Amino acid sequence: MVEAKSIWMDGKLVPWMEANVHILTHTLHYGNGVFEGMRAYKTSKGMAIFRLQEHTKRLLNSAKIVAIEVPYSQSELEKAQIEVIKDNDFKNNAYVRPLVYLGYGAMGVYHKNAPVRVAIAAWEWGAYLGEEGLEKGIEVKTSSFVRNPAKSLFGKAKACGNYLNSQMAKYEAISCGYEEALLLDENGMIAEGSGECFFIVRDGVIITPPNDVSLESITQDSVIKIAKDLGFEVQRRNITRDEVYIADEAFFTGTAAEVTPISSLDKRIIGSGTRGEVTKKLQEAYFDVVYGRNPKYSHWLTYID
Ligand SMILES: Cc1ncc(COP(=O)(O)O)c(C=O)c1O
């Protein structure tokens, strides 16, 4: 990670290396906290955060789901994120990471007596699954881990604890020589990647699962809207693992992953085994939107002046 200058903590900017917490920080022990991931792109009109309002809303919704009361409003949080981008004066694209966590002051599993803290960090960050991955596609493994089932955990919350599931799936995939994991739900249907939503293309139709067992992804929503604009039919329905093997194309979407083609799943080559035509079109259209080159979606960008 590239160090930046400052991090916003509970209302003020502190130097990057001084943004520390006590070892008895509640979230560190029991995993209840919520976070977001946003990208800020260097557009021709300066830095712009992509879908700041929607990400901030999801942060507050995540907190509501896990019973954490955030001491800041939506607009205060949006302003604070803009302040972080401004203060750090990034030369390249950056990633913004707000975190609502339970601080020092109470121990034990019961969390309501712990103080609620908020931090916002940002740093320069390139392609999450590699520049080559964006062009050639990545090799993916179906995970042996089931996506956190809705009976046990809250998939609509971007909650810290949920990411133990993602982390183990990612670790398994990498240690087996793959680049990313694809998790199924309890019924064997595709749920999502460790940090991405999932799409296939069959006979020109774009298919992506409903968000029953996945995060309500902002990139997935963006790509669906962009695809419809381009005249594609988009279906929201369940996908089985074997349907992926015989798909023409497959790709992941996410704030970090952007639109990343999938070249194979479980060593079955998908389509031509490289970025497909539909994926390329969507990827280019997505980059046009995030870099402010498509005026139809300029409302998704918050410019930092
Ligand atoms: C588990 C999971 N699913 C999906 C996504 C994609 O969501 P978004 O497009 O809002 O970044 C993410 C990333 O935030 C994620 O962590």
From TrEMBL:
Gene Ontology cellular component terms for the protein in this record: cytosol
Pathway noted in the entry: Amino-acid biosynthesis; L-leucine biosynthesis; L-leucine from 3-methyl-2-oxobutanoate: step 4/4; Amino-acid biosynthesis; L-isoleucine biosynthesis; L-isoleucine from 2-oxobutanoate: step 4/4; Amino-acid biosynthesis; L-valine biosynthesis; L-valine from pyruvate: step 4/4
Keyword Amino-acid biosynthesis: yes
Keywords, alphabetical: Amino-acid biosynthesis, Aminotransferase, Branched-chain amino acid biosynthesis, Pyridoxal phosphate, Transferase
Enzymatic class: transferase
InterPro entries: Aminotrans_IV, Aminotransferase-like, B_amino_transI, BCAT-like_C, BCAT-like_N, BCAT_family, Class-IV_PLP-Dep_Aminotrnsfr
Biological process annotations from GO: isoleucine biosynthetic process; L-leucine biosynthetic process; L-valine biosynthetic process
Signal peptide residues on this chain, from the entry's feature table: none
Highest taxon, organism lineage: Bacteria
EC number(s) given by UniProt: 2.6.1.42
Cofactors: pyridoxal 5'-phosphate
Pfam families reported in the protein's UniProt record: Aminotran_4
A Gene Ontology molecular function term of the record: L-valine-2-oxoglutarate transaminase activity
Protein family membership: Belongs to the class-IV pyridoxal-phosphate-dependent aminotransferase family.
Function (record text): Acts on leucine, isoleucine and valine.
Name this protein carries in UniProt: Branched-chain-amino-acid aminotransferase
Organism: Helicobacter valdiviensis
